Amino acid sequence: MEDPGPADVWEYDNLEDELAWETTETPLLIDVSLPVFFNRNPEKVGKHAQEWRDLMMGIGVERVKMPSSQIMASDALVGLDSALLSDYEGLFEELLGLNLPEVVFGNGLGCATALACAWIEMGGTGVVGSIGGMDGLPCLEELRLMLHVTSKLPCPDGGGTMRRLRELSEVFSGEKTKGLKPVTGAAIFAVESGIHVDGILKDPSLYEPFPPGLVGARRFLGMGVHSGKTALRLKCSRMEISLREDDVEELLDRIKAKALELERGITDDELLIIHGKFARERERE
Known about the structure:
By secondary structure, the protein is mainly alpha-helical. It has helices at residues 33-38, 42-58, 88-96, 112-121, 140-149, 160-173, 194-202, 229-238, 248-262, 268-284; strands at 29-31, 63-64, 77-79, 103-105, 127-129, 190-191, 220-221. Strand 3, helix 3 and strand 4 form a beta-alpha-beta unit.
């Protein structure tokens, strides 16, 4: 994967104050992505650490640990993997009185992010997380959007920051972000079902917890076995494909048949091919 481009170079081997970027009070969110990435790709992490820090702080993450930092403090509370299976609210009430500097929720049951959300909802702070939930930590971008959706801490307008964080994380890890990864996935706003398309056209908030632009994404209308006439009309309009109302149903049937054959949705290029063949047949009639 290519380097995303030039950025401020940050020297990580001669640090005088490793906590220079940290606040004095216990922050709500603590990002430890850089130390995790540093173990995999130190050269590129060091090159882009300053930019990463600025991006994270720009979306309201108060503490960003440097690449050479320890992922968790020695006095951090670690674990609580199964807390959701019992009286977690009672447990959290007791823990809130301890003024914990860092809380590192475990992901043994796949609930680290859910635990972190519950902790924050009850007024907890010091949540340690990472982009994409690396190393079994709570997923930082999901926590950030939770704070936005619940009106606790609105995200800044424009989605360039989240998009850039995704690009950098792909460079650091050498892996492409999955299309359906919550918040940062490129395809999370793709929709195929006809009733969903109709609903989104009337009121996007019925199906979308936040607007695509907030995370640098865009709404994508896919065509497949679940598509309806409304979706096809809209798709053809956006692609500037000429479509007579009398032809909508038959063209839709062909699209569904092809999607069923391929066992996936139809790409835009495939739609053009299907429509082109259909149009030529119409002309010969």
